[in-house]
Write a structure and sequence with these properties.
Blueprint (H helix, E strand, L loop, with lengths): L11 H5 L1 H20 L6 H4 L31 E2 L14 H5 L5 E7 L7 E9 L8 H5 L5 E2 L16 E2 L1 H4 L11 H4 L7 H10 L18 H4 L15
Antiparallel strand pairs: 1-4, 2-3, 3-5
This protein binds iron/sulfur cluster (2 copies).
């Protein structure tokens, strides 16, 4: 759209400059005070923040004292899910590495001593710098052995090597057991019979087809408010 240019000569007041400077300062101060005291961002995440004496209505998140909650389904840093005995659920099937479009997962498989069937990852490395956070590795895993439910993003670092996450760093978080886990159904040497029976009793049942998904690890006020994600936002105005 063409923008009309005002080419008229300056009048006396404009040629004196100072009245116009004072007028501009007045307009700027008015916007500043209105935004400071009478305006709020209509974003549900912002509206859910507490108000009151001593608190600001500013939309700026006072990081790092204050952290914005991540939305449901946020794909955070990877973790290797441990079994109840602390070993990884991973059976080194390479499906995550095959599915990874960034080719940033490296695995070396080993055989579990005394077990003719089971394998485990001797080496499991993810290059978080190459990762494009697509979540395909999580989707591809048949053992629920890799998740992105940490709610964390990669910590900053000045060295590339610090973003190479090995098994010792990845293996963390709460353990997960399913009733169909082979180490619970047969005599896995790493778990004695009595604890294995208790684990089997407390393990998660096999999920039914079409069962609702588990709640996300980092609920958001946006989700709690039931606001549609990516939907139309109300016009900005005084509140
Ligand atoms: S999130 Fe995507 S890019 Fe990152 S490791 Fe998994 S499959 Fe690879
Ligand atoms: S994390 Fe899952 S998909 Fe990847 S190697 Fe282990 S069991 Fe297979």
């Amino acid at each position: 759209m063409p923008y009309p240019i005002d080419n008229r000569p300056l009048d006396l007041r404009e040629r004196m400059y100072f009245p116009e400077i004072i007028r501009g300062i007045g307009a700027l101060t008015g916007h500043f005070l209105r935004n400071l005291f009478f305006s709020r961002d209509p974003n549900p995440d912002i509206l859910a923040r507490p108000r009151g004496f001593g608190r600001s209505d500013n939309v700026t998140v006072q990081y790092p004292e204050e952290k914005a909650p991540y939305p449901p389904g946020y794909r955070g840093l990877h973790r290797l899910v441990p079994r109840e005995d602390g070993r990884p659920r991973c059976v080194a099937c390479y499906m995550c590495a095959a599915a990874c479009p960034a080719q940033c997962i490296y695995i070396e498989a080993g055989e579990v001593e005394g077990d003719p069937i089971e394998k485990y990852p001797v080496v499991f490395v993810i290059d978080e710098l190459r990762c494009v956070v697509c979540g395909l590795c999580v989707e591809a895993c048949p053992k629920d052995a890799i998740r992105m439910d940490t709610g964390e993003h990669a910590p900053p670092s000045t060295e590339r090597a610090a973003q190479i996450w090995d098994k010792a760093r990845l293996l963390r978080g709460p353990s997960v057991n399913y009733q169909y886990d082979p180490w619970l159904r047969r005599a896995a040497p790493s778990i004695p019979p009595a604890p294995r029976a208790a684990l089997t009793a407390s393990a998660r049942p096999v999920p039914a087809v079409g069962a609702p998904a588990a709640p996300p690890p980092t609920p958001s006020p946006r989700g709690a408010a039931g606001a549609p994600r990516g939907g139309p936002r109300p016009p900005r105005g005084r509140r």
